[in-house]
What does this fold into?
Amino acid sequence: IDLVQYSGEQWLPLDKSLRDFYYVGVREYFRSVVAGLPEAKRAKYREQAEPPAGERLKSLALRRQPSDLAQLARILPFTVASAQALNLAGNLYLDRGQYAEAADAFSRLLQDGPALPPEAFGGASARPLLPAAICVKWAFALILDRQWQAARQALETLAKDFAKDSLAWQGQTLTGAQAAQRLQARLQQAL
It folds into this structure.
């Protein structure tokens, strides 16, 4: 874990058997290794990674710099703290009108979902991250950024994968399908 935290943007040769070398960043390589681990081994990784990730999140959350929060998720991926950091980064980007960055943060959070611990999406977390709500924010950021095709794909994901999930929206409880319909209407207005 120390190697990943302090390696900066170092590069590793990925395959020496080919005529041309392919390089990948240390952090991206580490991320792919952790993502591919069986759940029991990923749990062992989280035992080591969660304490420093949680401490770093506490200090970064006070500074409210979304790029630093997103960096935490790259350095120590697949932890509850990294999921919370990505969610907070996405929210801050939205608030600041940086819609492409917000969409990227929410997209990464959804992509990481299957490898995240259950606590990140409800479990023991005091503030659960609901996948349907993350998908709504992802689609909304894409609409605001005028990425029409990507917004349509996000809305399809919301309607298909989270259709029956409940989420809070403007003081109401909606299903993912209902939220997708509302955002679809917003998308049509924007076109």
Notes: The CA atoms of residues 54 and 81 lie 5 Å apart. Strands lie at 11-13, 23-25, 166-169, 172-175. The two ends are 46 Å apart (CA to CA). Confidence is low (pLDDT under 50) at residues 2-7.
